[in-house]
Amino acid sequence: xxxxxxHNPHLDTLKDDILYHFSLGTGTHNLPAMFxxxxxxxxxxxxxxxxxxxxxxxxxxSMEDPKSEYPNICAGTDRYAMYKIGPVxxxxxxxxxxxxxxxxxxxxxxxxxxxxxxxxxxxxxxxxGIGLDPGTVVVTKQxxxxxxLPKFEQVILGRTVVRNTDLDQSLAEELLQCSKELDQFETxxxxxxxxxxFYEGQARLDGAFCSYTEKDKQDYxxxxxxxxxxxxxMESSAFAAMCKLSxxxxxxxxxxxxxxLKGDQLSSSHELLHSxxxxxxxxxxxxxxxxxxxxxxxx
Length: 299
Fold this sequence. Notes:
Blueprint: E1 18-19, E2 24-25, H1 31-35, E3 40-44, H2 47-61, E4 82-85, E5 88-92, H3 97-113, E6 120-129, E7 137-144, E8 151-156, E9 159-164, H4 169-182, E10 187-194, H5 214-226, E11 229-233, H6 236-246, E12 249-259, H7 270-277, H8 279-296
Parallel strand pairs: 3-5, 3-6, 6-12, 7-10, 10-11
Antiparallel strand pairs: 1-2, 4-5, 6-11, 7-12, 8-9
Helix pairs in contact: 2-8, 3-6, 4-8
C-alpha cells in the first residue's frame, strides 16, 4: 500500500514514541498533520546544506518566497536539522554511518507514524571521485564496502548481521535522464564505496597516521576502480540497507570534489567547491519538479 515499513513489534507496546534526536514524538506532536503529505525526503550531512536545499526547492517550485525564513523543525535539539516545504522534507544526517543510522531510525518511524505513502528518499552529498573529473555527479548503482562487496555489516547482540545495499535502479536511471535533460554537468551511474573513516579508511596519505606507501594507495584505488567504484563517501551502505528494509524508494546522488588518484587534499577554491556542491541539489530539484508536474498532469 506504499506505506513506510517498520519491523519492530515492540513499538506497538509504547504509549508514546519519543523521537529523541529530532525533539519530536507521537505524544507531543500531531505527526500525520505535520508530515502526512511528504512524498520526497532529501538528506545530507550538513544542516546548512539542507536549509539551502529547502530554499532552493522553494524557489524552483514557486511555493513560497525563497527569502522566507524556514524554521528548523528540530530546533529543540542540536543533533539534526529538519526543514519542510510542501511535500519535500529536508533533513541533515551528520557525518558517518553511526550518525546517519540514528537519524534514519527516527526518520523512518516519523514517516510511518505520519502515515506517509509512496515516499522517495534521496541522499545528496559530496564525495571523492576515482578517475572522474572533479564536479562529476555520481548516482549510486550499488553501495559497496571497503572490500568492494555490496553489503552492510552491523553487530547486533554480539553477532554480525549482513544486510543488502541495493538501491532502486529505476530511480537511478530516472535521475540520469534528468541530468541529460538539464545538460549542465557530467553525471554517471556507478558503484559507491562506503568507508568507516575519512583518512586511512579511504587510503589517504595525509592523516595523523599512515602505514602504507603511495604505491599501496594507488594499487588499492585502482582495484576499487576495476570493481566499478566511481566515488567514496561514508554513509551510503547504511542508507541503502535501511531504506530497503523500510520499503523506501531510495537513491544516492553525490558530486565528486576531487580525483583521489591525483591527490588527497581539497585544494580547489571555496567558490568552486560550493558550485560543485550545488549540483546534486540542482539535479534532485529538477527530478522533484518533474515528478510533481507529471502528477499534476495526471500521468
